[in-house]
Amino acid sequence: MQNPAQPRPRLRRLAVVVLLVATSLAMASVASGHGFGTTANPDHYIADSRIHNWVATEESVSVLTRLEPLWRTVMNGQYGNRTDMVASEVAYGSYTIHTDVYWFATTAVSSSDALCVRWADQNSTPKKCNQVRVRHPWKKVFDGTSDNTWKQGICHEVGHSVGFDDSSPETSAGCMSGGSNGTLSTHEINHINNQY
Asked: With 80 as the cut, is the pLDDT of residue 16 above it?
């Protein structure tokens, strides 16, 4: 007679199968955490091309002095040097309708956001955006928020302009899923390079 305190072999095998299936599903949900283009949101957009230039339309010299070097660090170091995209800065004052991303600080928001303001093709799947506006919260510019936190926010908002939705954390987290210091993960880089 089998000891009732010990599980039967058949139940053990069933428990192992259930555990494996649950683990596979959990891993699949992590991998799909990066909604890119239409992956997570059918209405989401991607950039119109691999050329991704940016400019500050910020009028405050003190805000410009504080944030523009961090924009350069993220755009050149992450999107320019680590992906197949070509990131370049538009000279201040020469902003045009062809500038891909422009940023400024405002009291209208309490956290940074990104919005497509000019479409290249709204009928494509996914939609293609020609120009994105990024707003930063004015009150956080001088409240002691660290450079790394700002780089994270900039990398994240630029990621929206490239084609990412907000993402759930993954093992090697990048800036779209709460990673630190404004760094793109290999997973995010692969999405970008496969598109552009």
From this structure: no
- The letter for the amino acid at 196 is Y
> Bridge-partner residues for 136, per DSSP?
105
Q: Could you read off the pLDDT of 69-117 as tens digits, one per residue? A: 999 999 999 999 999 999 999 999 899 999 999 999 999 999 999 999 9
Instruction: Compute the average pLDDT of residues 144-168.
Output: 92
Which residue has tokens 């045009």? 96
Q: How many C-beta atoms lie closer than 10 Å to residue 117's C-beta?
A: 12
Task: Give the Cα-Cα-Cα angle 30, 32, 35 (nearest 5 degrees).
Answer: 125
Sign of torsion over alpha carbons 108, 101, 157, 77 = negative
Burial of 59 per CB tally in 10 Å (0-12, 13-18, 19+) = exposed
Are 102 and 56 in contact by the 8 Å Cβ rule? The answer is: yes
Instruction: Return the half-sphere exposure (C-beta side, CA atoms, 13 A cut-off) of residue 95.
Output: 15
Q: In the chain, what are the domain boundaries? A: 45-195
Superfamily of domain 45-195: Collagenase (Catalytic Domain) (3.40.390.10)
Name the pTM for this structure: 0.81
